[in-house]
Design a protein that fits this description.
97 residues; mainly alpha; flat
């Protein structure tokens, strides 16, 4: 039980620190940070694959699978947002009539 409370405390503390750090970022730095976040989510995805495939038990497999799903959503969504932001900087072709 102590381990669960300690892990919950670490999780809540990480959420609080993450929120505080991200809320202080100026808008001009969001695009580079999105690329970095995509890379970190890719690492999370690899770790989730390792946990889900380790065969450590049913609970670890379920949590690993959920981590795979959420990390995949995060990576794909991050790349889509980054692509849309980069599209804003491309020159538009003039219509030829």
């Amino acid at each position: 039980m102590e381990s669960l409370i300690f892990n919950l405390f670490i999780f809540v503390l990480a959420c609080f620190v993450g929120f505080e750090v991200i809320s202080k970022v100026p808008t001009t730095l969001h695009t580079p940070l999105m690329s970095g976040a995509n890379a970190i989510s890719g690492i999370t995805l690899v770790g989730a694959l390792a946990i889900a495939g380790s065969g450590s038990g049913t609970t670890a497999t379920i949590i690993g699978f959920l981590a795979i799903v959420f990390a995949t959503i995060n990576v794909v969504g991050g790349f889509m947002v980054t692509d849309r932001m980069l599209e804003m900087f491309k020159k538009k072709k003039e219509d030829e009539a």
